[in-house]
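Retro notes, item 3 of 5
We never archived the inputs for the fe (ii) ion complex last cycle. Fixing that now. Sequence and ligand:
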Amino acid sequence: MNTNQPSREEAFSLLKRYNQSESLIKHALAVEAVMRHFAGLYGEDAEKWGTIGLIHDLDYEKYPDQHCTMTKKILEDEKWPEDHIRAVLSHGWGMCSDVEPVHDMEKVLFTIDELTGLVTASVLVRPSCSIMDLEVSSVKKKWKMKAFAAGANREVIEKGAAMMGRDLDFVIRETINGMKKVAAELGLMG
Ligand SMILES: [Fe+2]
Ligand SMILES: [Fe+2]
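Structure as it came back at the time:
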């Protein structure tokens, strides 16, 4: 087994090799930033958590019907460490993989993946188009509107927050805080 941890640079160039879509790259950057942020809160390895966040949807543009399965194959071919592959697969637990999130890193990834989409959509309908002063309450208002950002599965986020043992307010607040750090790259500065 290769125990070398892939660098951020390696992960990003692999991501770019398989993805051209600007929105998918932005999603990857958002999830990376939030993973890094939570790693800081948990006192864990921000580089590792961030890299896993960055690469989690690697196969989605080219192989949407084989989501997770193809990422597993690609990362194995690239000789990525097993714990990285496991964590990436766990984001699709019950959807495109049967790998249950067990570690904190996996639980956080599972929880915040869909949430970054809801936060992004919540920012884009604001007159300011900025995340910098986005309140948790404004995301929660949108949360209740089922047709709003319908692709962001609220049940998955709730299930994830329960696994993390955290309330939704905390998870939403810290997801916003993580995304703020890359607001310019995400086009969420207004
Ligand atoms: Fe995914
Ligand atoms: Fe994702």
